[in-house]
Design goal:
six-stranded mixed sheet; five-stranded mixed barrel; Rossmann fold; 2 domains; 8 helices
Length: about 375
């Protein structure tokens, strides 16, 4: 199989379904060989964008380019894309071998080449020797790998995957996430992956495009999005977050201060773009940056209302006097019990002050619950 895929460019793409604007004007570039994930809640436009890339939907405006070639008006069969669907769409009456070889037969590939490429694809997904089995004889994870092999065997320029792990249980999903990442490193295909699961996105992606209400909110690597989100929605959607909402009282030298209703002291942190004195903002403090202390005179105190044991770590929820909930994730320790009062602290350098565009429930989200 060839080593790399082709670049993909969405230029001014939009799409409506009647009065519903599913995708607002969107520009996005995916580099050759990159694994990019479209991440967002239901209805954010990610599957619409994927289907436009595949040719299953026509955009209302804009162009799609693959490897610099305009494919907007081409049908799916002429775009040289591989597609892995959520339900895998395998043929139950065909064997594993015939399922994988199907696309090659449809393209009229000579028998010797078909044999070679089908065998190589099964070996790539670690299913060599499974060719004679019926689909019903395979586990969910094995069926997912057959679907991958069928998409890869045609040597597509771009591999598109639409929430392919949704039907798997959590443990198997985690295993297959790593398997897909391994396969990507092996085949080097440009991959666009759709999911609403942030863990999947972080595990597998080179970059993540977080989508909301038909727009791309921010694009970047997982670490960049987690540590340096530009807006409160991104911070609240990717990872656990404490988002303390208030009014900007000062900005200077890349820092900002906000006053939060019910707190005696303002919160200072690193300022994101788009803040203005008097405007609303949210202070982002990740749970792992929150420290608990019994030191007297702590500026914030909270009552421990929930303790969830996670093995090496514990997830804690503390209620401040004004009713705000603070999330803390720290090493498991003795003596931290429900009902205890604790001082709550963090370093200003661990706080980011962001324009507030997130729903209120984002401030109390715990991943995995």
């Amino acid at each position: 199989m060839t080593a790399r895929g082709q670049s993909v460019r969405f230029a001014g793409i939009s799409r409506s379904f009647g009065p519903v604007r599913a995708l607002l004007t969107t520009d996005l570039e995916v580099s050759a060989g990159e694994f990019l994930t479209l991440l967002g809640p239901s209805g954010s436009g990610k599957t619409t964008l994927l289907n436009i890339a595949a040719g299953y939907l026509e955009p209302d405006t804009g162009r799609v380019l693959i490897g610099g070639r305009d494919v907007t008006d081409l049908p799916p069969r002429r775009r040289n894309i591989g597609m892995v669907f959520q339900n895998y769409a395998l043929f139950p009456h065909l064997s594993v071998w015939e399922n994988v070889a199907y696309g090659l037969r449809a393209r009229g590939v000579p028998s010797a080449e078909l044999e070679r490429r089908t065998g190589a694809a099964l070996e790539l997904v670690q299913l060599a020797g499974y060719g004679g089995r019926a689909i019903r004889q395979l586990s969910g994870g094995q069926q997912q790998r057959v679907a991958l092999a069928r998409a890869l065997v045609i040597e597509p320029d771009v591999l598109l995957m639409d929430e392919p792990l949704g039907a798997l249980d959590r443990q198997l999903r985690q295993q297959v996430q790593l398997e897909i990442r391994r396969l990507h490193h092996a085949h080097g295909r440009t991959t666009i992956y759709v999911t609403h699961d942030q863990e999947e996105a972080l595990v597998m992606s080179d970059r993540i495009a977080i989508m909301r209400e038909g727009r791309i909110a921010q694009v970047g690597g997982g670490e960049e999005l987690y540590l340096r989100p530009r807006r409160a929605f991104v911070a609240g959607f990717l990872g656990e977050s404490n988002l303390l909402r208030g009014t900007v009282t000062a900005t200077r030298d890349g820092r900002a201060v906000i006053a939060v209703p019910g707190l005696d002291r303002p919160i200072e942190g690193i300022a994101a773009d788009g803040l203005a004195v008097g405007g609303t903002a949210a202070a982002l403090v990740r749970p792992e940056c929150v420290r608990l202390t019994h030191a007297p005179g702590a500026s914030l105190t909270g009552q421990l209302v929930e303790r969830v044991y996670l093995g090496e770590l514990v997830a804690l929820r503390l209620r401040l006097p004004n009713g705000l909930i603070i999330l803390c994730r720290c090493l498991a320790r003795d003596g931290v019990r429900g009902g205890d009062m604790w001082g709550v602290a963090w370093e200003p350098g661990d706080v980011r002050i962001l324009p507030d565009d997130a729903p209120p429930e984002a401030s109390t989200k715990i991943v995995g619950q």
